[in-house]
């Protein structure tokens, strides 16, 4: 939870003090206001995913290792993590495209796919696989309780 708050504060610091040299809110050729909007959306999704992860860890701490609240929280974490990656990947080009059409159709739209984003997408796929394993573990735990 504190990591999410720190992330949000860092982005707010980058917005409030754009020339501080430590924290910069940047986008691929976007005007500053659109950088702020896209960054705010990405950070909001990332913070919400961390909140879901914290809820999952609370459920595990309460002894509900494979209970439905834990698996639901992990699914939500994986989904929000994926959405934050997709928003980071797709929002800047979508805004560029919108600005391009608003300015008469002349300009450039760039889509930045680098190794870090590809790796992040692979991690998101792995998280969904782990979520499926948690669902199966929950089903097996319910079955074992029914037998005993």
State the shape.
elongated
Number of discrete helical segments: 4
First-last Cα distance: 38 Å
Which consecutive residue ranges, at least 5 long each, have pLDDT under 50?
A: none
Mean pLDDT: 80
- Helical residue percent band: over 70%
| Beta-strand segment tally | 0
Largest sheet: none
Structural class: mainly alpha
Radius of gyration: 19 Å
**SSE order:** HHHH
Please indicate the percent range of residues in DSSP E strands (runs of 2 or more). under 5%
Give a structural overview.
By secondary structure, the chain is mostly helical. Helices cover 76% and strands 0% of the residues. The chain has 4 helices and no strands. Helix 1 (2-16) packs antiparallel against helix 2 (32-61) and helix 2 (32-61) packs antiparallel against helix 3. The longest helix is centred in the middle third of the chain and has 35 residues, at 68-102. It is elongated and about 70 Å long. The chain starts with a helix and ends with a helix. The model has no long low-confidence stretch (mean pLDDT 80).
Layout of helices and strands:
Layout lengths: L1 H15 L15 H30 L6 H35 L12 H33 L1
In short:
This protein is 76% helix and 0% strand.
